[in-house]
Amino acid sequence: MARRLSALCAPNFSLLETRALPRLPLSIAVSPGLSCDKTWDRTRAIAIVTQFRAPADLTNASSEPADLDRIRRTTFCRASQPPISLRLSPARRKETTRLLGAGAQEDGDGVGEGNGAGANGRKDGWNGFDDFEGLPWWRTPSVFWLLAPFAIFTLAFGGIIVPKLNLILDLVCQQYFADRTLIDPKHPIVLGSDNPQCRIPGVQKDVAAFILVLNFVTGGLSAIVAPKLGHMSDRFGRTKLLALASCGGILGEMLTILAAKFPQTINYRWLVLGAVFDGVTGSFTAGNILCQSYTSDCTPPSKRAVSIGYIYACLFTGLAFGPLLAAYFVKWTGSLLSIFYVVLGCHAFFMLFVGFVVPESVSKRKQVAAREKWQKEKEARATHVGPWASMVHSSNPFAPLRILWPTGPGTSTRLRMNLVALAVCDAIVFGGSFAAGPVVILYSGYMFDWGNFETSRFVSALSMVRVVVLMGVLPIVNYFGRVRPAARRRELWGVNPEDKNSGADHLDTWILRVALVSDILGCLGYVFARSEALFFGSGMITALGGLGSATTQAAVTKHVPQERVGQILGAIGMLQALARVVGPVIFNGIYAATVETFPQAIFVALGGLFVIAFLTSLVIKPHICQRPGSPIRAVFEPRRGRMLAVRLGRAMTRSFATPPAVRGIMTSTSTEGKALKFGPFEVTDQVFLTTRHSFALVNLKPIIQGHIFVCPSTPHLRLTDLSADETADLFRTVQLTQRLLARAYFTPTGDLGAGSFTIAVQDGAEAGQTVPHVHVHVIPRTRGDFGDGGAMDDIYVKMAGEEGNVGGALWDRERRPAPGGGMPRIEDVERHVRTPAQMHEEAARYKVTLREMGVE
């Protein structure tokens, strides 16, 4: 009696038709299409193939199977979009795409969904929201939770720069004259006022030296602490440590207020202690990288650059309006000290809001898993090198940078090159912009006699252009470069693409290169600008480079597993903190040495750095990422030029291109030096497709042309040994190979309606399994494929016979397994219809057994 069962293994898998078998504990037969099951009139014993390894002697065979040639000739296309896992849908969904969506839950169409599992519980793609399903919105993490508090945080950061500089100048000046008993009672030094007596070289020298000490202490300590906080946030959550990063600012501002109110009691040098407090809590560097880590947690990879762009837009908004608002506030209150109370309140608000209101983006389950993994790695390192060496390793201040050069399973040389290249680009973009900013202001005053008004207008315009680029241009580019093409693929092929970490894509690399080119052109404009208008225009060109930092940091998070995002961004933050310390020294030194002879030398040096960054960006290869416990995946990278013809498909007709949505589960024919085995036999040269947990290979003894296998990468013996992720990936790979074979054997366009498939699993020796490695048979079927006199179901006879004896072709003849799994032919007239009571009794018996197994 035929029954319809929903897919037991993979979400949205096509319906299976089953027949009850008295002999075997499991029998699943899948025969999509009328041409296969129209005349199906008997029970089948068929097993699902999950893992299959072909024999090593295939490499030396006199002739390769015709299937391999046919598959090789099948042309695949690739595009700049990131790979996306396939999720088949029984019907095409209505197209609903969003332009400005940052990844927090959308319409459930699978395109950049924020709810990691989607409507159907997907588990193999990006799963950032799997642990938050069903929670109310106020407990669901989203980048939008951070935008308002981070904007306040950056306004405080930007608004305090000039007032604090002026306050330090007045405090140092007071102390300078007090030490020399030169203060004129008729002309006292008033904090926040214009004190002309402080404009002497001695005071200026002391101020410059003291600010250098403050920057060195804050930058040096944050360079050490920020990566550790980033790594800890993977294990203990983002929000608590993000609140901690603001505590240093609170303590520092309290010391500043005390030093300003009681200058005779508290020496200005106590501000160094405030810098220590700020540094040991990570300072602004830690706050920035933790915000980006939080954003990465709750944003799918395809929209991560846009969301991180929002964070940078908040930063530039603070830098643009912070000084302006601070100046007006000081003028309105008439007290320089008043702005420090406001900044203290901003820090306190940020700390309380993030610590107690913003939902945590790393679930308790992921935190526990990350802590256990970290503890195991720590114990393994201590066992391998000894406890003392392990302690030295942990105390090494540069140890966090080692994540930029990962080794071991799941890594490759190409991955390491990508990470280093992205880190170099980010350090140059961030460090160059941060260090050159003050020099640009000095240069504009020197060359064009700009005052405070002109300089403030230039800085504000520069920052606002960056905000427009990050919040306007970048979302539009992402929409037309990723979201819209994904929607078209969904509409065309009836599939829902899913996001997953798969390395930087082509769009990432091109955005980064365009940003670096704009920086280079802007620096050239600075060099040749002899008018204010040209100088101003050159600055606006460099503002397009704001795309660089957001893109590099989004791209670097796509190279590592989700549990290492905080660690990798911590390493990036360490480089940024070092750039904040070293960069100003270098650029100020260059400007001081060349201002009298060639003041534009600073821009030549800056442009040279951007050229180096651009050349480094050419090293970045798309779609390289680290997979936990598995080899690195390089999408569509042909192995030794043999397997798949890969061409950019824009010029190709759509009908001859493999469905782009299907390409999500494709990695390449390259195995990065790892041998693939089917059972005990190496089949690397027969494998034409690898995915995260599976691979597909041609058959040594095909029953008919196009007969292939799909196997799990891990050599499980039985189907029930597979994990949920492995099972889902296995059948998604089966679906992909069906589309491939349809193009190879049905029609050039891959029309699935032009033929049918037999999908079978022989699960156990009694079902005919002769290789101790789960494998799925995928066999393309057309009418008359067994000749005019052959029945449609002769395929099952052959599978149970010598034609289907896969193990017999692999083993030594002395241990040759016997084929099996067949059953005597049972005609429909011999099958007795059961009564409803009999079927109800059987169903009730199964329910009791399931409850005994703990399944309700």
UniProtKB/TrEMBL annotation:
Record GO terms (molecular function): hydrolase activity; nucleotide binding; transmembrane transporter activity
Keyword check for Hydrolase: yes
Entry binding sites for substrate: N699, Q762, G768, Q769, T770, V771, H777
HIT domain segment(s): 674-788
Major location category of this protein: membrane
Pfam families xrefs: HIT, MFS_1
Membrane-related topology note: Multi-pass membrane protein
InterPro entries on file: FHIT, Histidine_triad_CS, HIT-like, HIT-like_sf, MFS, MFS_trans_sf
Motif (Histidine triad motif): 773-777
Cell compartment(s), UniProt: Membrane
One annotated Gene Ontology cellular component of this protein: membrane
Site description Important for induction of apoptosis, residues in chain: Y796
Active site residues of this protein: H775
Top-level lineage group: Eukaryota
Transmembrane segments: 143-162, 207-229, 241-262, 268-290, 310-330, 336-358, 419-446, 458-480, 510-529, 535-556, 568-592, 598-620
Name of the protein in its database record: Nitrilase and fragile histidine triad fusion protein NitFhit
Species whose genome carries this gene: Tolypocladium ophioglossoides (strain CBS 100239)
